[in-house]
Amino acid sequence: MSDFLPKVSISIITYNQEDVISDTIESALLQDYDNLEIIVSDDASTDRTPAIICEYAARYPGKVVPVLNQINLGITGNCNSAFSACTGQLIAFLGGDDLFLPGKISAQVKLFQSHDVVLSYHSVEIFLHQTGELLFTTNTTRNEDLNNAYDIVAKGGIPGASSVMVRRSVCPINGFDPEFPVASDWLFFIEVAMRGRIEKLDGVFGRYRKHGKGASEQTFMLLSESLRTLDIIQEHYPLDDKLKDACEKGAYRYLLGELFRQIVKKDKEKARLVVDLMLVKVSGVRYFSILCFSWALKFDLFVFGVAIVFERFRSILKRVV
Prior knowledge:
By secondary structure, this protein is α/β, with parallel strands linked by helices.
């Protein structure tokens, strides 16, 4: 075995997940890598989640480390509670209802033997919580690969944040930006990736639980945070023209996906709001396509005509923009 055995912190955030938190912690404990700590940060849950975490901490003292917020801090606040408690050279992120697959940590750590590697990710299975049905697997095509920070920007982030491992020394000093109460991980990962090289770990090493409740509404609610992320990153690197172009691609891709969601839902009002945002955020050749969307919406060509067809081709179109 290699002598490269840095300490790894597994950062788990949770809130009212008494039905799944044990499975999540167990998936971390089953990793074949000894030099790790499992930080489990609970955001003032009102169910048995804190008690379950404490039970694991008692069974695995020093390995399972509980962080119990006394008041609810929200997603970003809880991320920072966990982040502040991490003492490892590397940090792996795991949602309170997601799962690591066997061998994930040991395989991913090897990629960080190159000192310029600052972030790694891998494919994850997306499955439906209610039935266990496998919906799809992320990052299965070369066009979906993320090779640098510009790709993370242009392609709208890293699918399955629980696939990510980062080098602690290059993380933002204050962790996740509180300006973004929910969607702070995108900016965090971009900032990390701007400081070094990304490596993809080949293979599927995680499972992301999809509950199927309100996903479309949630993405619409997060539009302002996502678009603000692109503004912030350009403010941080104002002389980087390549980043500016990536931000425009990222805005177009994100808004295009949201437009399709609203079209499939036949919500004309929200679809028009998305198109209006696209007209502000996007220029060049993409601007013409947005004008076409705007014209079609006026005559209900999308909403009442080809919504089903658009849903089928949405993922294909997003992969090539």
